[in-house]
Automatic annotation (TrEMBL):
One of its GO terms (cellular component) is Atg1/ULK1 kinase complex. The keyword Lyase does not apply. This is Autophagy-related protein 101. Keywords: Autophagy. One of its GO terms (molecular function) is protein kinase binding. The keyword Transcription regulation does not apply. InterPro entries: ATG101. It comes from the Eukaryota. The lineage of its organism: Eukaryota, Fungi, Dikarya, Ascomycota, Taphrinomycotina. GO terms for biological process: autophagosome assembly. Belongs to the ATG101 family.
Length: 184
């Protein structure tokens, strides 16, 4: 498996969903190719590049909400959301355990802090994470990117969030055995 690219952020629980969604948007903005409509949003007084796609926005909001809700329910389950990019969609077969290795893995580690007011430290942490994201993307050589083979001209990806009912061990086992999503 590839070496994970990690972004660490300290976020107030009041802004954790919004900031997590913004980070997922920023990563996808830098990695999805093809016909995209760029846009920016202001999150915690930080300008974040996003893709102008309502369906994607709703999907990222759902993933960020699930992630932050699981953090609030049980902090012992882990504090990471993982974004995996594949060269080809992972294959599901009836009789084999065929998995596709991701060519890039982003790990967003969120530390929920008690902050009053909830914006100063969270805004600074989000800004630092976005700067690190741009540095990591720009430090990679172009030959590192695999050819795009999907019909829509984009890399298949998967966002992995630990659900409230499973631990990280179960989650990792599910990721390795099932590899279910190709853009979810």
């Amino acid at each position: 498996m590839t070496t994970p690219l990690t972004l660490d952020v300290n976020l107030s629980s009041a802004v954790a969903i919004e900031a997590t969604k913004a980070l997922l948007h920023a990563i996808l903005f830098h990695r999805l190719l093809g016909s995209i409509r760029p846009q920016t949003i202001d999150c915690l007084n930080v300008t974040v590049p996003i893709l102008d796609d309502e369906e994607l926005d709703q999907q990222l909001l759902a993933k960020a909400t699930d992630f932050v809700d699981s953090l609030k329910r049980d902090t012992s389950k882990g504090n990471q959301v993982i974004l995996l990019f594949y060269e080809r969609p992972p294959k599901k077969t009836w009789f084999s355990r065929h998995t596709t290795e991701p060519w890039e893995q982003w790990v967003i580690s969120v530390n929920v802090i008690d902050e009053d007011p909830p914006y100063a430290q969270s805004s600074e942490s989000l800004q630092q994470a976005l700067e690190k994201l741009v540095l990591l993307v720009n430090s990679r050589v172009c030959s590192y990117l695999p050819p795009v083979v999907s019909e829509n001209g984009q890399y298949p990806y998967e966002i992995v969030v630990n659900s409230a009912s499973e631990g990280w061990g179960t989650l990792l086992k599910r990721m390795l055995i099932e590899n279910v999503s190709s853009g979810e």
